[in-house]
Give the backbone structure.
Amino acid sequence: MHSFTSVFASLALLVAHALASPAAPPQFEVLFSGPLSIGDRNVLSGPFGARLNAPVLGGDLTDVAGSLVATVVPATAADGTFFPDAKLTLQWAADGKFAYLHAQGVGELGGSDLTHVHLETDSATWSSLNSRFIVGNLTFGTPDAILTVFGVL
Ligand SMILES: *[C@@H]1O[C@H](CO)[C@@H](O)[C@H](O)[C@H]1NC(C)=O
C-alpha cells in the first residue's frame, strides 16, 4: 500500500511537470493564396481612429501547385439567401466630415436585404447617430441599388 502511494505521488509530479511545460510551437502550411481585386480605397478619421476601407471585388485562390481552389463570390447560401457584410464611407454634405458604416444582415441577392448598420462619425451635425440603433434596406434595381437607412425611434 505504501509503495502504491509513492508511485501515485511520483506519477502526479510527472503529470504536473508535463502540464507546466509550454506547448510546442504550432507549425503552418499554406492552404491557398491568391490576389484579391480591391476597389477604390477610402480613408477616414473617426472617433475610434483612422479607417481604410475598400470593396473586395473578386479573386482566384490557388494551392501551392497553382491549381484553382476557390473564387471570391458574394456571401450567398445554396437556397439563394444573401448575407451581406458591407462597409461604406460617407462624406456628409453638412460639414464635409466622414462616416464609417458597417452593415451586416440577410436578404436575397438581386432582391433586397435588411441589415444592422454600425455607424461612426465625428461630424458635429451627425454624431448623435453614433449611439442610435440603425438598420438599412438595400433593394437592388436597375441601374442602381437603393439604400435606405432607418434609425430606431
Ligand atoms: C426593402 O424595401 C423594399 C422597397 O420598399 C421592400 O419591397 C422590401 O420589402 C424591404 N425589405 C425589407 C426586408 O423590409
In short: Residues 112, 114, 137, 139 surround 2-acetamido-2-deoxy-beta-D-glucopyranose (CB under 6 Å).
